[in-house]
Write a structure and sequence with these properties.
This protein is α/β, with parallel strands linked by helices. It has 3 domains: 2-126, no CATH class; 149-208; 219-281, Roll (CBS-domain). Helices cover 55% and strands 13% of the residues. It has helices at residues 7-18, 22-45, 72-96, 112-124, 133-143, 148-176, 182-208, 233-237, 262-272; strands spanning 2-5, 49-56, 59-65, 222-227, 245-251, 257-261. Helix 2 crosses helix 4 (112-124), helix 3 runs antiparallel to helix 4 and helix 5 (133-143) packs antiparallel against helix 6 (148-176). The termini are far apart.
């Protein structure tokens, strides 16, 4: 595992130290580190590979490979492990240690800040927006209900909405609490990285449904779809689910029937792009 510290992390630390917020910065960093390390540990438990650990001013990111073919329950466990730990720590602070000083005092720093940071971090990461854990979890769930491609488009729109909301809240936060631009920075980060996130989603989608993968790597059950011979490639792609193998049935006007699988669809797209119609993928059977 390669660990990288983004140069802006040191810049943010220096700014926090200049304005007297170094301790808060370190406590928040500790909460984020616990969050990400929980993802890493859960990934390793389920035999995934952790290739990179990136530390930035806005948080840390663990790059975990090999989860895409794991059962939904395993993926959910890894995704939700981080927020669950943060909320559990916050609960311990309130219920077990009876910590109540969540607000930062003007002088000194109470232990409540650490527990409050964990509660805020856990709840925030459950928002259904990319690249947060809540967005990844909703991507998995909705991708099996409305289709993986549709879910990606929907969640990108929701992510943009939350980013604008965070930027607006950040402006209000700055007027109430001097020098605190955390919400504003997070909103800008989401907006700025959304185009790259969309490209990443498209890449992951086509890698996942690649026709070159073996049949044993696409788990059952099989889901059947009825389409017309004029259905476009985009319409067919919207049918694909993460955890089912898609089979398409065509009923022609002359009474003929035919079928093809998602593998045939992705092979056609690999060779011809998104041009063509569903009828071109099959030979009619009478």
């Amino acid at each position: 595992m390669v660990t990288r510290v983004h140069p802006t992390f040191w810049l943010a630390l220096g700014i926090a130290a200049v304005f007297g917020f170094a301790r808060e910065f370190f406590m928040l960093t500790a909460a984020v580190t616990l969050h990400e390390m929980t993802h890493v540990i859960m990934g390793l438990v389920f035999h995934a590979r952790v290739t990179e650990f990136i530390i930035t001013p806005l948080g840390e990111t663990a790059v975990i490979k090999g989860l895409e073919r794991k059962p939904p329950g395993v993926r959910a466990a890894v995704i939700l492990a981080g927020p669950a730990l943060n909320l559990a720590i916050g609960y311990l602070g309130v219920r077990v240690f009876n910590v109540t000083d969540f607000a930062m005092p003007e002088k000194g720093l109470g232990p409540g800040y650490f527990f409050a940071a964990n509660i805020a971090l856990g709840a925030f990461n459950l928002l259904p927006a990319f690249p947060l854990d809540g967005g990844r979890f909703c991507q998995m769930v909705l991708g099996n209900i409305i289709g993986a491609a549709r879910a990606n488009r929907l969640l990108c729109g929701i992510s943009r909405f939350f980013a604008v909301l965070l930027i607006a809240a950040g402006v209000v936060q700055l007027t109430l609490f001097s020098y605190n631009i955390s919400l504003y920075c997070i909103g800008v980060y989401i907006i700025k990285n959304l185009p790259r996130e969309q490209l990443k989603l498209s890449f992951e989608f086509f890698c996942y449904f690649s026709p070159g993968r073996g049949a044993d790597q696409r788990i059952t059950p099989i889901k059947f779809f009825t389409v017309t011979s004029q259905s476009s490639m985009e319409d067919l792609i919207d049918c694909l689910r993460w955890d089912t193998f898609s089979v398409f049935n065509i009923y022609f006007e002359n009474g003929g029937t035919a079928s093809f699988s998602e593998r045939d669809l992705m092979r056609h797209i690999k060779e011809n792009g998104l041009t063509g119609r569903a009828g071109e993928l099959v030979y009619e059977e009478f």
